[in-house]
């Protein structure tokens, strides 16, 4: 990466030199150095109060060091197969000079990107010594990319930014330069693992494990210099479809042998390979149920195969009956993951990570935190988020999700009034919060939102979600609004104040705005079946998918109480089980998720449910119209030193087109939802607005 430093300093000014251990570093603005001793790399020690790093060669700069000025990055990639290293770094400022020290190249890389984010501020202010470390070692993105274009889902399942950056025309791309740029982007936010193919593994994608391994190795090589390990999604039926066996029974010795051989082949070509991601016995994907086995049987067989290589198995907990009878109200999709996995706690191998969606349903705009996260204390669990906006506007709508993710990460299973809030000084999440549970265990995973689109994410503003996700995996206690402003400043450097204000105005409360004009009070879905874009209130109501709202002439919502419903509320630890069980204490924003109530039920705001539905849908459209107006006001201010006129014109055109579609769609949502519930309830809008 020294070449990049040279290029950066040539482009932006200054100079750099690479020095051997013991060389002087006088007059350097920025020094990046690996701390070494005879035993090998050691963690960067937390400084004592008042301690300052020094540039004395005979003190802590015992490894090779690279002084540079203002820009650039340094460090060789970790050796393939090297054990997980300490990724922390220590930053010291002494009289305007900055020293970054780390135990490994990745830590040094993250330290450099931290300096870049701070910009000139890194070199100003009082002397200081800070230690920075990621909250979790597992910071991952899953790509739902298909090698071959799927007849229904296309090149990227739930992809809203064009085709795959990895695959084209049924093969791994010959030119991986965009993947290399993507790897650099991810490293700058703290991501250290990626899965590169769809969890729904089709026949063509399955061959990544066999015929295409040399090409997977090329992708891994593109990520490796940036400290990112590659994973593959695999089909549980691979021993049959790829190996010619007549079974995939996890307890069959021949099946176990096949997977051991497969793992040996993978790690022989990619020594720092991360492991396998598995979706089994879910939505038609094969799994251990076919043989009378459970998820622990299936996961542990794979775990044994990859264990000699230090590999991981990410076993997704998204398992439910997708062929249920809509007439049967005792069957509840929300219960499924807990019912399947909680009884297996303690049976999974140490290198198995059970990957749990943040809510019990499917990445809805508002769901309660999944109780599975708290129900498996003897199992490694990971939180799964969705950066791609499947149910939040599909990157046609400007919806910044950082606030949603912060709310999820901060949720504390010990109760709303607990003392377990994140310590803002230490940046350590409460051990009973979602972040505190998953950080030391399985980490955080999300579905990526990038493609080969010019703007990477389709909607240029959706880049903010990719950025915030990475930063929150490093520090779940980070302020989501602060991360938004950080993204704005880095993406639009030197932008006029009116542009910065407009971007903040559009994105800051955009998640809540989307919630207002779509599904109310936690009821979820109400989308068009299949592609999930746009309103269709009854689209899934009489289908086998289990995503119901049960609206009738008297009321709406799903009774998930223990007393009279499906019992889902009782799956939470106290006090949440009681909070959700009671109409008096259930949060309004989740009311319809847990209760079936009359339209005349009065919320804490003093409004009835039906009036809340009317008001929020009108307000949601009004807010989107404010977004459009805010953007139109600054169109003439976009170009400048950091953006050419042509780039500004393309950006302006794309954002304007997406905002126009968001306005159209919000109006459609407003009119369909309000009309539907007016006709169901027969209760008019108190303000007499037009409802059809």
UniProtKB/TrEMBL annotation:
Residues 130-456 form the Glycosyl hydrolase family 67 catalytic domain. Residues 457-689 form the Glycosyl hydrolase family 67 C-terminal domain. The keyword Hydrolase applies. The keyword Protease does not apply. Keywords: Carbohydrate metabolism, Glycosidase, Hydrolase, Polysaccharide degradation, Xylan degradation. Belongs to the glycosyl hydrolase 67 family. This is Alpha-glucuronidase.
């Amino acid at each position: 990466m020294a070449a990049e430093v040279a290029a950066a300093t040539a482009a932006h000014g200054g100079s750099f030199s690479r020095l051997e251990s013991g060389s002087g570093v006088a007059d350097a603005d920025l020094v990046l150095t690996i701390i070494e001793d005879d035993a090998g790399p050691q963690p960067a020690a937390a400084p004592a109060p008042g301690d300052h790093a020094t540039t004395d060669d005979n003190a802590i700069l015992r490894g090779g060091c690279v002084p540079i000025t203002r820009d650039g990055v340094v460090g060789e990639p970790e050796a393939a197969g090297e054990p997980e290293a300490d990724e922390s770094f220590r930053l010291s400022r002494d009289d305007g000079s900055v020293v970054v020290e780390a135990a490994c190249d990745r830590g040094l890389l993250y330290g450099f990107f931290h300096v870049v984010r701070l910009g000139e501020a890194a070199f100003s202010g009082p002397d200081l010594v800070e230690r920075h470390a990621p909250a979790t070692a597992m910071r991952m993105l899953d790509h739902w990319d298909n090698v071959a274009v799927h007849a229904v889902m296309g090149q990227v399942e739930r992809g809203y930014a064009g085709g795959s950056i990895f695959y084209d025309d049924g093969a791994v791309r010959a030119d991986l330069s965009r993947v290399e740029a993507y790897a650099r982007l991810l490293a700058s936010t703290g991501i250290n693992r990626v899965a590169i193919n769809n969890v729904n593994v089709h026949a063509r994608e399955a061959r990544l494990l066999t015929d295409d391994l040399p090409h997977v190795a090329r992708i891994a090589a593109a990520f490796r210099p940036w400290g990112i390990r590659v994973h593959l999604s695999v089909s549980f039926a691979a021993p049959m479809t790829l190996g010619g066996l007549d079974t995939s029974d996890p307890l069959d010795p021949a099946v176990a042998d096949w997977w051991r051989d497969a793992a040996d082949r993978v790690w022989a070509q990619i020594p720092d390979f991360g492991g396998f991601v598995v979706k089994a016995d879910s939505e038609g994907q094969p799994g251990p149920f076919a043989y009378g086995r459970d998820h622990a049987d299936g996961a542990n067989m794979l775990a044994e195969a990859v264990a000699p290589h230090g590999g991981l198995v990410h076993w997704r907990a998204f398992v439910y009956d997708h062929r249920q009878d809509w007439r049967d109200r005792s069957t509840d999709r929300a219960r499924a993951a807990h019912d399947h996995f909680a009884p297996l706690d303690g049976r999974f191998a140490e290198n198995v990570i059970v990957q749990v969606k943040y809510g019990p349903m499917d990445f809805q705009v508002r769901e309660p935190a999944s109780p599975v996260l708290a129900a498996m204390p003897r199992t490694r669990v990971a939180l799964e988020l969705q950066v791609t906006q499947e149910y939040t506007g599909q990157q046609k709508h400007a919806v910044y999700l950082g606030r949603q993710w912060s709310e999820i990460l901060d949720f504390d299973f010990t109760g709303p009034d607990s003392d377990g809030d994140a310590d803002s000084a230490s940046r350590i999440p409460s051990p009973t919060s979602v972040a505190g549970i998953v950080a030391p265990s399985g980490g955080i995973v999300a579905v990526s939102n990038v493609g080969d689109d010019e703007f990477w994410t389709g909607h240029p503003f959706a880049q903010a979600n990719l950025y915030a996700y990475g930063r929150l995996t490093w520090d779940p206690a980070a302020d989501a609004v602060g991360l938004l402003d950080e993204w704005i400043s880095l993406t639009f450097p030197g932008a006029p104040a009116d542009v910065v204000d407009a971007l903040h105005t559009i994105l800051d409360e955009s998640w809540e705005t989307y919630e207002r004009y779509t599904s109310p009070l936690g009821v979820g879905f109400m989308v068009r079946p299949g592609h999930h874009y746009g309103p269709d209130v009854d689209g899934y109501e009489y289908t086998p998918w289990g995503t119901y709202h049960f609206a009738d002439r008297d009321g709406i919502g799903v009774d998930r109480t223990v007393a009279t419903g499906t019992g889902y509320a009782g799956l939470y630890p106290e006090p949440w089980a009681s909070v959700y069980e009671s109409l008096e204490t259930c949060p309004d924003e989740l009311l319809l998720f847990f209760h079936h109530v009359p339209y005349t039920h009065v919320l804490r705001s003093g409004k009835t449910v039906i009036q809340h539905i009317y008001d929020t849908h009108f307000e949601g459209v009004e807010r989107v119209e404010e977004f459009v107006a805010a953007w139109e006001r600054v169109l003439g201010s976009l170009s400048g030193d950091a953006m050419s006129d042509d780039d500004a014109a393309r950006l302006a055109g794309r954002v304007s087109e997406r905002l126009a579609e968001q306005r159209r769609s919000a109006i459609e949502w407003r009119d369909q939802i309000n009309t539907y519930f007016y006709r169901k309830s027969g209760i008019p809008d108190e303000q007499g607005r037009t409802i059809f």
